[in-house]
Design goal:
Two copies of one chain form a homodimer.
Chain A lengths: L18 E4 L5 E4 L9 H8 L3 H8 L8 H13 L6 H8 L4 E6 L5 H16 L3 E6 L4 H13 L4 E5 L7 H7 L3 E4 L9 E7 L1 H14 L5 E5 L5 H16 L9 E3 L4 H14 L4 E4 L2 H13 L9 E3 L16 E3 L2 H17 L6 E5 L2 E3 L5
Parallel strand pairs in A: 3-4, 3-5, 5-6, 6-7, 7-13, 8-9, 8-10, 10-11
Antiparallel strand pairs in A: 1-2, 12-14
Chain A binds a DNA duplex through helix 2 and helix 4.
DNA sequence: CTCACGTAAGTAAACGTTTACCTAGATGGT
DNA sequence: ACCATCTAGGTAAACGTTTACTTACGTGAG
């Protein structure tokens, strides 16, 4: 067949309309109902005069027993006709999609933006792609996303911290290799790794730095009070006080969420309720919200009130007053997570990894 | 069959190992090689004593001619066994995945974070999911993502501005319904809609505001100088000058990228080269970078140099000096894009939409 | 010459759905 | 009694791959 031939598509279901459309280069192409040109392995096979199996073998480089001639014919045909494998069909038979799902509570929180980005980069490096899901810290959405990802055949899932403890029953049932980041998680067969941050130390360092600078009344603002990642941080904050012989005043504590909106509101509440000279915010977004509230009341940072953040998101040093914060090496965590997942996929018998990342304090201008 | 029976899976390929694993609730479950419990429509059918077709009809609510009894049996079985349809198999036969792809240049740019979020929300509202891809403004990555998305059978794609004009040949070939946001794009059959921002007016408003405030030397910082979305902005900036009878000094212009890093570098360069009392930054990220550079040199904002942003990302009002900027209604744009796409998917014959969003100026404290 | 083996393919089943079309029984009208 | 129609559901092909197994044809050794 030469280059100007009419290529028939596969025999198609009688009910499905076929359209022959004049393509570029004066060629007739087979086009399906939605107007998509469909080049399949069978088309290549027919044109090359071989079977579909042979084409598949060549294209997947399992061509040990294929002659050089056939091999080249298939490759050049595939290139010429811009053959793109149908990943859906491939996934169906191989039961592997080379896609990993990522669930985060809030992509608008720059911490998660960075994390997602890092995961994506790490995944692509190893030939995987990612699908992103936002849970909004809503258990129902989280469960729905989990089911969605399972239904779409992802090979593994990275679940990043949210306030909620995931539905163990669901996870157990899905049996999809899972990486848990910074959250409490039940013991699960499919748990490939945990990447956690030593929040206790992080909060301790943050509060200790403030105490060391002479502050005696330090507000504490964090996420959902019921969630472990808040409780643990609070423990660090309290230990810093105990070790310095300072009392802990519950009036100084406001927990709710990690976003800037809560930071703003919590700070207003705190300001109305009591007095303090420093704030220990358990996320940078919280610290940004807090700073806005402080300014509203005419309070300067750090002159009237010092502010510590947590996470060291990329925006932190870009603020007009670069934010002092607790560094978490977000990208490294994301990369670690995805690498652990893919390693587990490659060899599920290997030991589960448990990583505890140690945070450090970065002093900039808000303290 | 009662609840404690051994459920055999489908007859499986002889070579594929089957493992019978003791599940929760003292039940033996059929488990595949990767350890995943596989409940298929056939399992439900066998248990209900009907054909797979009947199960499919019921579960898809095409059950006009199915008895109430059968229907209930199938539903309760499906619920009880936590049947989750295999979207991959479904997509293969229906040729529709109810997934849309989103390509952005840089998810770390808060503008795109918000856009992606809005698209995701809009898509989910209409029963679609999204897959996110980062192009890093790299034509090769963009092409690779396009191919990836096509290969994964997305129903449509939202492509957000990057500096590059997309590969028309590739797009033409893929024939996937496309929404183009804020970028030059060739006339394409599959172009479902364009959602653009009136950059010319936006930049004009930004510069005019600064001129109105008495500034005479206003720096202009924007993205890739070859890209239309920079050229058009520059035209607006220049028009504002012309209309005010002000000269345009090329020394005041630095174009490269829209991220904060370039904002920082460009401002340093400008500061070394010439003098000015205001900056017209064509993205908020650029403005944030510019502010940092200004501070470095001991210049206060807005006392020594006024700064205008562009986009009104959610962080803009959270800065210690809330940023004056040009508002773009990011979420609305995202929603518009996805709605246009899905409407097109529902009815491809409808007229293509062309939306030009009008920006407005928001004055805060940096000017 | 036979047999074993290596090479270059081809065959067909399988993945889990959806769906056009078929069937068989029941009902009802003439 | 016969035919048409409705109801409830079954059959089998199709989607585009991958892959275990088979085949057919050398070729060299014994």
């Amino acid at each position: 067949m030469d280059g100007a031939t009419l290529f028939l598509g596969n025999a198609i279901h009688a009910s499905r309309m076929a359209i022959c459309r004049q393509g570029a280069g004066d060629r007739l192409l087979f086009v399906d109902m939605r107007g998509n040109v469909a080049i399949t392995i069978k088309d290549i096979a027919r044109q090359a005069g071989v079977s579909a199996a042979t084409v598949s073998k060549v294209l997947n480089r399992k061509d040990q027993f294929i002659s050089e001639e056939t091999r080249e014919k298939i490759w050049s045909l595939a290139r010429e006709r811009n053959y793109t494998p149908n990943s859906i069909a491939r996934s169906l038979v191989t039961r592997s999609s080379r896609v990993i799902g990522i669930i985060v509570p809030d992509i608008l929180n720059a911490y998660f933006t960075e994390l997602v980005r890092a995961c994506d980069v790490a995944a692509r490096e190893r030939g995987y792609s990612t699908i992103l899901c936002n849970s909004d810290s809503d258990p129902e959405k989280e469960a729905a996303h989990l089911t969605f990802l399972a239904s779409h055949g992802v090979d593994g899932i990275v679940m990043a911290a949210s306030d909620l403890i995931p539905d163990a029953g669901l996870l157990e049932r899905l049996r999809i290799p899972l990486i848990s980041m910074d959250r409490e998680i039940p013991e699960l067969d499919c748990l490939a790794a945990r990447i956690d941050t030593d929040y206790e130390t992080g909060a301790f360092l943050s509060a200790s730095h403030l105490i060391g600078a002479g502050h005696k009344r330090i507000a504490f603002v964090s996420g959902n009070p019921l969630a472990s990642n808040t409780k643990i941080r609070r423990a660090g904050y309290e230990r810093a006080h105990r070790e310095a012989g300072l009392p802990i005043d519950p009036d100084l504590i406001e927990c709710g969420a990690f976003n800037h909106r809560f930071g703003l509101m919590a700070t207003r509440t705190l300001l109305d309720r009591t007095s303090f000279s420093a704030m220990c915010c358990m996320s940078d977004m919280l610290a940004m919200g807090a700073t806005v509230a402080l300014r509203e009341r005419g309070l300067g940072v750090p002159e009237d009130c010092a502010v510590m953040g947590f996470d060291n998101i990329y925006i932190a040093p870009l603020l007009v007053r670069p934010l002092s914060t607790v560094e978490r090496r977000i990208s490294e965590a994301g990369q670690l997570a995805v690498d652990a997942l893919i390693d587990f996929l490659d060899d599920p018998t290997q030991p589960r990894r448990m990583v505890l990342m140690e945070p450090t304090v970065i002093l900039r201008e808000t303290t």
